[in-house]
Design goal:
The complex is a heterodimer of chains A (about 375) and B (about 325). With about 375 residues, chain A is of the alpha+beta class. Chain A has 8 helices and 20 strands. In chain A, about 25% of the residues lie in helices and about 30% in strands. The model of chain A has no long low-confidence stretch (mean pLDDT about 85). Chain B has a domain at about 110-330: MetI-like fold (Orthogonal Bundle). The chains are: A alpha+beta (about 375), B mainly alpha (about 325). The interface of A and B includes residues 80 and 88 of A.
């Protein structure tokens, strides 16, 4: 049990490429922190630095009281679950789980006890004698988990552990990992590119982009108060819609096609004439039939996706693609003459040049 | 076909064919909104009529095996039952007399001993040295490419040339290594000393084979997923232990293949090296079975005896390979 602290951690490769550009965050004892971002954002590199599989160019990594920068992976008291599971193909399930304990000279009865216990928790009892190739994807995933938990490490590191599973199994394993982590109360860092996985698992969410940390917070906080256009577009599905415009003298947003969008003036700074991007979550937008007075933005319908529990209406506002998420009880759009409406308080504003939020209460970090 | 059937997975040949018009071209899907399930038909392989084609395709391989292996092997077997007089005028069928005579000759047993010693040492050394080199090349070191390329070169050297190289290097009085050995107080003279001659051909044979083994070991090492090694590192296995508990077992298919190849190499393909370096001497100290076949048959003109030897040699290698497949392969993982 320990907290994990990263302080201004950087990674520069020999060729000069900077994969991680100064990242600082803390994972509290027993907490689950998710690093999320598109591929190439440096999240896996960061995790591998915590594991000791990559060297740290500068900054500090602490696990518990120890600075671990220069320790070997085995000395860091961590366990890692890999994307491809990385099971030892020539060893049985039992040996796979026992390997780490044997290397550390754990007495035999203790190994037996711990492996059996882990197998019971993960429902692997019947499979202990099998080789990894005789297991299904989900079972392999469980063995990889088992290998991590038998060691009772200070921290678990997960490197996209579910991305090799099919969609249904992924949801199931996601729930199991969360339950298991709550039960064991082991500090965990979890890397994923799947924003839904990130939202559902995280005690604390770290959104990364291009080696930078874009935002840190609880899942709900990040969703409700995205600190930048990038976070707003990345977290949430379907992604947030963006409309470019200018703040006019009446404190409204004027869109290029002459329509207006009202926003809550109390939310952040918005000087007249400032070029901004308005962010509208698809589920917050209402579709109205008919074009009333030309003031509300017009919506050009292109496609309706029926989902059963609702529907996604795709189209365009001005030249920008725009999606509206409707509930099942909302009337489906009729005709092509539509406009959109939204509560002013639900409009997010971002600076058009920097991409930073003007409305979010949360600081960038 | 009804929708229910299609849903139940009854997509059969008929429904696939329905996307084709009579002249075999892909028909336009009737409704563009419905994606056609089999726009690129799965069954697009060419089908030749008749049962002759498989045999026609097999002929070249069969012909090669027949002409270069079965025929000479049968010839050898036949000749091993014959005795020819000194002038080649008459031939007599003598059943197993050639074999019986062979087993009364002490120099034959000597050759058997030399062969097993030579082959065992060559296979062991060339495999373990190649594995060592491949393991080092596999680590990310600077100029790894150059290192690898240089290691592969010896494979392109002909056995006789390789042998000549070693003769020069170990030539007493001339050779670089020979002088170094003599300077260190050793009475190095492979031309007179049988044990030293054997060591010389072993070194030449090992050197020649290392590149081949190295190539395969390196490929085998690189096929091991990096994450498995990393997992072992996190699991607390130090490099030495990691190698023996994870890397080596995962390399076992390669190792097994190479053991078979190397034994066969040491038994048969070292003829050129031995012939050039020592000619089987001094005093038959480096006379292996295959060299003896060559010596007795070509130089001694004892065709029957030589044929009997080669039949036995063939039997030994077949048996060794069979044993390897039967017992060693069981311990090969996945």
């Amino acid at each position: 049990m320990a907290s994990v602290v990263l302080n201004e951690v950087r990674k520069t490769y020999a060729g000069g490429f900077e994969a991680v550009k100064g990242v600082s965050f803390t994972v509290s004892d027993g907490g689950l922190c998710v690093l999320v971002g598109p591929s190439g954002c440096g999240k896996s590199t960061l995790l591998r630095m915590v594991a000791g599989l990559e060297t740290v160019s500068s900054g500090d990594i602490r696990i518990g009281e120890r600075r671990v920068n220069d320790l070997e992976p085995m000395a860091r008291d961590i366990a890692m679950v890999f994307q491809n599971y990385a099971l030892y193909p020539h060893m049985s399930v039992f040996d796979n789980m026992a390997y780490g304990l044997r290397n550390r000279g754990t007495p035999k009865p203790e190994i037996e006890k711990r492996v059996k216990e882990a197998a019971r928790i993960l429902e692997l009892d019947a499979l202990l004698e099998r080789k990894p190739r005789q297991l299904s994807g989900g079972q392999r995933q469980r063995v990889a988990m088992g290998r991590a938990i038998v060691r009772k490490p200070a921290a678990f590191l997960f490197d996209e552990p579910l991305s090799n599973l099919d969609a249904k199994l992924r949801v199931q394993m996601r729930i199991e990992i969360r339950k298991l982590q709550r039960e064991l109360k082991t500090t965990s860092i979890y890397v994923t590119h799947d924003q839904l996985e990130a939202m559902t698992l995280a005690d604390r969410l770290v959104v990364m982009n291009g080696g930078h940390m874009e935002q840190v917070g609880t899942a709900l906080d990040v969703f409700q108060n995205p600190a930048s256009v990038f976070v707003a577009g990345f977290i949430g599905s379907p992604p947030m819609n963006f409309l470019a415009g200018e703040v006019d003298t009446q404190g409204r947003l004027r869109l290029p096609d002459g329509a207006f969008l009202a926003f809550d003036p109390k939310r952040g700074e918005a000087q007249v004439g400032r070029k901004v991007l308005a962010g509208l979550r698809p589920e917050n937008v209402a579709l109205r039939n008919g074009v009333e007075d030309g003031a509300a933005p017009r919506f050009r319908l292109e496609l309706v996706e029926e989902l059963g529990m609702g529907r996604l209406v795709h189209g365009k506002v001005g030249e920008r693609p725009f999606t509206v998420a409707q509930g099942a009880s909302d009337p489906p759009p009729s005709g092509y003459s539509l406009s959109i409406g939204i509560e002013p308080a639900l409009v997010h504003l971002f600076d058009a040049a920097s991409g930073l939020s003007l409305t979010s209460a949360a600081p960038r970090r | 076909m009804s929708e229910a059937e299609a849903f139940a997975g009854k997509v059969d040949a008929v429904s696939r064919d329905s996307h084709f018009t009579d002249d075999g071209k892909l028909a336009q899907p009737r409704d563009l909104a419905v994606p056609a399930p089999a726009q690129s038909p799965v069954e697009s392989r060419a089908i030749f009529s008749g049962k002759l084609l498989p045999y026609v395709l097999l002929v070249p391989q069969l012909a090669i095996s027949l002409v270069f292996f079965y025929w000479p092997a049968a010839q050898a077997l036949w000749q091993s039952f014959l005795v020819q007089d000194a002038f080649g005028l008459s031939t007599e069928f003598v059943w197993f007399e050639n074999y019986a005579e062979l087993f009364t000759r002490p120099d034959y047993y000597h050759a058997v001993g030399v062969t097993f010693l030579f082959s065992g040492v060559v296979a062991f050394l060339s495999l373990s040295l190649a594995l060592l080199l491949a393991t080092m090349a596999d680590r990310q070191i600077k100029a790894a490419r150059v290192y690898r390329t240089l290691l592969i070169w010896p494979y392109a050297v002909a056995p006789a040339v390789a042998s000549v190289l070693f003769i020069f290097m170990f030539q007493p009085g001339l050779g670089l290594f020979a002088r170094a050995l003599q300077a260190s107080g050793l009475d190095w003279n492979p031309i007179l000393n049988g044990a030293q001659a054997l060591i010389l051909v072993i070194i030449a044979a090992v050197w020649k084979q290392i590149s081949y083994n190295f190539l395969f070991f390196l490929a085998g090492l690189q096929a091991i997923p990096k994450s498995v090694i990393e997992a072992a590192a996190i699991d607390g296995a130090k490099p030495w232990r990691r190698f023996w508990t994870v890397v080596f077992p995962l390399l076992s298919p390669t190792t097994f293949f190479l053991i078979v190849v190397n034994i066969t190499y040491a038994f048969f393909d070292t003829l050129g090296i031995i012939d050039t370096a020592t000619g089987g001497g001094p005093n038959k100290a480096t006379e292996t079975l295959v060299y003896k076949v060559f010596q007795d048959g070509r130089l001694g003109a004892d065709l029957g005896g030589s044929a009997a030897q080669s039949v036995i040699l063939m039997a030994i290698v077949i048996t060794l390979t069979a044993i390897q497949f039967r017992y060693v392969e069981r311990r090969v993982h996945y």
